[in-house]
Amino acid sequence: MSRNATLAVVGAGAWGTALANMAALSHTKVWLWARDRAHVETMRETRRNDRRLPGLALAAEIEPTADIACVGEADHVLAVVPAQSLRETATSLRGHLRPGSAVVSCAKGIERATGCYMREILAEVLPGQPAAALSGPSFAVDLARGLPTAVTLAAEKIELAQYLCGKLAAPHFRLYRSSDLVGVEIGGAAKNVLAIACGVTMGRELGASAHAALLARGFAELMRFAVAQGARPETIMGLSGLGDLALTCSSPQSRNYSLGFAIGRGEKPQEAGHGKLTEGAWTAPILTQKARDLGIEMPIAEEVTAILAGRVDVGEAIEALMSRPFKAEG
């Protein structure tokens, strides 16, 4: 494998660290940026990121840094920060990026304050820098362990997506290119909300049949919502849609699923996250508002939003879903 030059990973959480280690296989240098200088110093000294991804040694090619100007040395940048933080992070990149270098969003969500998708934030804050999105069924610990992982990388121009796939691929990390940036982003954002619902179902011990039904009907909601905004059905059927939904809705490794599970067990929504960031909780209100504005029915997402807001309890939400008018499947 030929070695590329320099990559910058902005965000030293678990996923950012795993991606940095993966990228080190194909890059001569990988910057790993974190805002917390003390955290950076610890990573430099120990060559580990035990705060976010315990047990993983950082590759020799990785250079932890708290200096955002590092992105100016990178051929391309992975923005691996929470969706609600992307605007602030993108603003800090302004003036440092190389002209024409791509910024790949690895966040899965919708900005709650504005309703913007990640590509819209990047276009607004960093005009002239090509935007892309990386999404799909992937847990940081799996990638870090070298387990086979496949995701989708999308950009409006398929040539850019193909170029980035070639730059980021590794023996255990397979990327599929797409020009459906809309579909890839919507799949990643909406599945987090539906994962909360599946977690509630399992925490409530409603059984495997109820879980399967909720997963199938949630996917129908996702498809309706995405297609109404111009996404291609085959994208939603792929890794960044159905694939990510299946993973996130079935594993306690998912923070969104775990949040729902705790709520199903009787914990209050504001406490069930146990201090961990759950993108689905931020996305749910704006997702359901967007659906209403489009005239798209998303009853499962609506009930998740109501539960998180404390307007209904789990029992009331289940009753509301089970008592909906009979209709044809679709």
List the helices and strands and how they pair.
Layout: E1 4-10, H1 14-23, E2 27-33, H2 37-46, E3 62-65, E4 76-79, H3 86-93, E5 102-105, H4 118-125, E6 131-135, H5 140-144, E7 149-155, H6 158-168, E8 173-178, H7 181-203, H8 208-228, H9 233-236, H10 239-248, H11 255-264, H12 269-272, H13 279-294, H14 299-309, H15 314-322
Parallel strand pairs: 1-2, 1-4, 2-3, 4-5, 5-6, 7-8
Antiparallel strand pairs: 6-7
How much β-strand is present in the residues? 5-15%
The largest pleated sheet is described as:
8 strands, mixed
The total of beta strands comes to 8
- What is Rg? 20 Å
Secondary structure tally, helices: 15
Distance between the termini: 46 Å
Instruction: Report the CATH superfamily of the largest domain.
Output: NAD(P)-binding Rossmann-like Domain
Order of helices and strands: EHEHEEHEHEHEHEHHHHHHHHH
**Helical proportion, percent range:** 40-55%
In total, the number of domains comes to 2
Strand arrangement, major sheet: 3-2-1-4-5-6-7-8
Helix vs. strand class: alpha/beta
- Weakly predicted, low-confidence segments: none
Chain-averaged pLDDT: 95
Which architecture of the largest domain would the CATH scheme give at its second level? 3-Layer(aba) Sandwich
CATH topology of the largest domain: Rossmann fold
Overall shape: it is globular
CATH top-level class of the largest domain: Alpha Beta
